[in-house]
Design brief:
alpha/beta, TIM Barrel, Rossmann fold, FAD/NAD(P)-binding domain, 8-stranded parallel β-barrel, 5-stranded parallel beta sheet, 27 helices, globular
């Protein structure tokens, strides 16, 4: 069986000799150059302990071949100065047993483990909740945030909850010399406990707006004593921490620091020239490596994806190259680096190690799969920011494409004791994820897909947002490697299902797009989302939609189909920049996930795009951090967004709208795209139930949840049956 993944980019055959080569930091030997980046996960216990949940999380990545995993944001003074209640702590000896067990579990798989030691400073949420002043080098300047304009009312309430608890307050205390010396002692004590617990190394968190980084930042540090002013003075706290740790645990115990190479959107903040000097000072003090990162103004909604959780591939590489030339110790770089790029960076001597965060949340077995040549078996991160968005709400970390993430201790795929014959109807992400998990459990799955390729609407979505295509490709590859019986071009009629006689039927038929009852919506210059997909992909419904095009447009589309341009996602993305059957002025009705992705796709192809959204918020279906990024990209492209705007009528060259304050307005349009009217396609499920046949409903067929909801429901059901 060879399932087609028509329209989704293929993966070239790759090897990674440099990325998978052994490395060393100080006297710490590492089996390859892949690190798991330290990240807040909220997987610690409420009392700061390192329990089974977080131990299992990191053990899975060590089992998967990662050279070194780093526990992020480990509090040196818990609960004082800690970011969130579920941070792992190492402020007392009582935390050593849990951390020692983590070390044992990681070591049992040949991996190494580091703790990222942190004092959260002005980001110590636990201090806010307790009403304690947060420790800072200087009183912060007041700032206005744009984040609220992108959040729903419910989201605003959830984020503000810690500030509204009884006794909570936001207050600051400028650090005295005694405070500074106490912080230095806390770091040294924490490192000593880590060493006693069998931890292999510690990373000093000197970035991301936490205490040490605010001392380093010329914008946030306005002190006039020996800890302020020159870069040497501003780096003094970091230097003293490194020296104290080395003095306490010995010169051979590996210690490195994470540093911001720059502070985006911060006038007068850290810049690469200063960061370069700070890295040199850290190396002179005894640091064994530098972990390069960046920060951004936290008042800017887009800041998190411009800073440490960058949306731009290789965003920190040039910074890392600069620092690499300035120090004689290894340099570690994160920042959305694909394995083949990381391999080249190491080959060329630009950096020494690649740290991966989101990639390893999505695929714990990444290193092992790269090493065994199973590149297409690597579950991809799709940069949807579900993981990071969960932290904003103080929830435990989770992943849209890997439902085991954060639940490894309780959510493993367990072989079934009662193997069944299961029919799955629909070859989109939900259907394929169910088939994958069910097959791994020992069930026999037959998957019906009426189209000639797998992926459903996610294939078209990948034209606008390329990472979606990687997920489709991964799932389709899993269907082949697991030898799932995939029947393409086959409608799962009741008669077909009767012939198969399955024990269970799972309906994953996705959604359908209904034309909303808007006057003028049936005109030729108006396209539904399905019609636009048909135009781009040239699917079976093309003859009907082509009637809306002019003769010249039909000719161009026909030529594209003949040369195969419309059946390859990469070529569509390239050629659509040269020509599309869409006019210059485009109005998109609907500012949800689909509308925003279409708007970015069209605006990047020189269309003047206006989004009309009846609700108060755009992109409400996105995880909030992805929404922040999407809105930023649309603003850069000049897309006009009109929330709280209803459509009265679509006219020949305009859309008549109404806004509560602005009243009736005309928005000029050559084409109108309807990105509304999405409803579950549950027709088959209803027919089966009416015939007395039980069936399960997952994905958008049961309720519009997009990829996050589709993968989640499929994974849950496959484990339950």
């Amino acid at each position: 069986m060879n399932p087609s993944i028509l329209g989704v980019d293929s993966v070239p055959t790759l090897t990674f000799p440099h990325l998978l080569s052994a490395g060393r930091i100080g006297n710490l030997e590492l089996r390859n150059r892949i690190f798991m980046c330290p990240m807040g996960s909220n997987l610690g216990e409420p009392d700061g302990a390192c329990g089974d949940r977080i131990q299992s999380y990191f053990e899975a990545r060590a089992r998967g071949g990662t050279a070194l995993v780093t526990v992020g944001s480990v509090s040196i003074g818990w609960p004082v100065g800690s970011g969130n209640a579920p941070n792992v702590a190492i402020s007392e000896d009582r935390f050593i047993p849990g951390i020692a067990e983590l070390a044992n579990r990681v070591h049992s798989h040949g991996g190494k483990v580091a703790l990222q030691l942190q004092h959260a400073g002005a980001n110590a949420v636990n201090d806010i909740i307790a009403g304690r002043p947060m420790l800072v080098p200087s009183e912060p300047e007041p700032s206005e945030s744009d984040m609220g304009s992108y959040l729903t009312k419910d989201e605003q309430t959830r984020i503000a909850t810690p500030h509204q608890q009884e006794g909570a307050r936001v207050a600051y205390r400028e650090a005295t010399r005694d405070d500074i010396q106490n912080v230095v002692r806390l770091f040294a004590d924490a490192a000593a406990r880590a060493s006693r617990a069998g931890i292999d190394a510690v990373e000093i968190h000197g970035g991301h707006g936490y205490l040490i980084s605010t001392f380093i930042s010329p914008y946030r540090n306005r002190r006039t004593d020996e800890y302020g002013g020159s870069v040497e003075n501003r780096s003094r706290l970091l230097v003293e921490v490194i020296e104290a740790i080395k003095d306490r645990v010995g010169a051979d115990f590996p210690v490195w620091c994470r540093l911001d190479a720059t502070e985006f959107f911060v006038d007068g903040g850290t810049r690469i020239e200063g960061a370069r000097r700070t890295a040199q000072l850290a190396a002179e003090a005894g640091a064994d490596a530098i972990h390069v990162s960046a920060h951004a103004d936290p008042a800017r909604a887009v800041g998190v994806t411009e800073g440490h959780a960058t949306h731009t591939p290789c965003h920190f590489v040039d910074f890392a190259k600069t620092i690499k030339k300035a120090v004689a110790i290894p340099v570690i770089v994160p920042g959305r680096i694909e394995p083949e790029v990381g391999d080249k960076l190491i080959r060329d001597g630009d950096v020494d190690f690649i740290s991966m965060g989101r990639k390893l949340i999505a695929e714990p077995e990444l290193a092992n799969k790269l090493g065994s040549g199973q590149v297409e078996a690597v579950r991809p991160c799709i940069y949807c920011y579900v993981c990071i968005s969960s932290i904003f709400f103080r929830d435990r970390i989770r992943c849209a494409v890997n439902r085991e993430a954060g639940r490894e201790f309780e959510y493993a795929i367990v072989p079934t004791k009662e193997p069944k014959k299961i029919a799955v109807v629909g070859g989109g992400p939900a259907g394929m994820e169910f088939a994958r998990v069910a097959t791994l459990r020992g069930h026999t799955v037959t998957l019906f897909e009426r189209e000639q390729n797998l992926g459903g609407t996610a294939v078209f979505a990948s034209y606008a947002y390329e990472p979606n295509g990687r997920l489709v490709r991964y799932l389709a590859n899993e269907m082949q490697s697991l030898d799932v019986d995939v029947r393409l071009g086959t409608a799962a009629t009741p008669a077909e299902l009767t012939r198969l006689a399955p024990d269970e039927i799972v309906v994953a038929t996705g959604a359908r797009r209904e034309i909303p009852p808007i006057p003028g919506a049936n005109q030729d210059h108006v396209f539904s989302g399905d019609e636009l997909r048909t135009l781009i992909t040239q699917d079976d419904n093309i003859s009907e939609v082509r009637q809306k095009l002019s003769w010249s447009q039909r000719t161009m589309m026909g030529a594209g189909a003949i040369i195969g341009a419309t059946s390859d996602a990469k070529r569509v993305r390239q050629l659509s920049r040269l020509w599309m059957p869409i006019g210059k002025r485009v109005v998109i009705v609907g500012g949800g996930l689909v509308g925003l992705e279409l708007a970015e796709f069209l605006a990047a192809r020189s269309r003047d795009v206006t989004i009309l959204e009846e609700g108060a918020n755009l992109g409400a279906e996105f995880a909030i951090v992805r929404r922040f990024r999407a809105m930023h990209e649309l603003e850069k492209l000049g897309v006009r967004s009109l929330p709280s705007t209803s459509v009265l009528e679509i006219e020949e060259n305009a859309v008549r709208t109404q806004h509560p304050d602005r009243g009736v307005e005309l928005v000029r349009a050559d084409n109108v795209i309807l990105a509304v009217g999405t409803v579950p396609n549950s027709t088959l499920h209803e027919s089966l139930l009416e015939a007395g046949t039980a069936a399960h409903l997952i994905g958008d067929a049961g309720g519009i949840g997009y990829l996050d909801g589709a993968i989640g429901e499929a994974s849950e059901l496959a484990r339950r049956l």
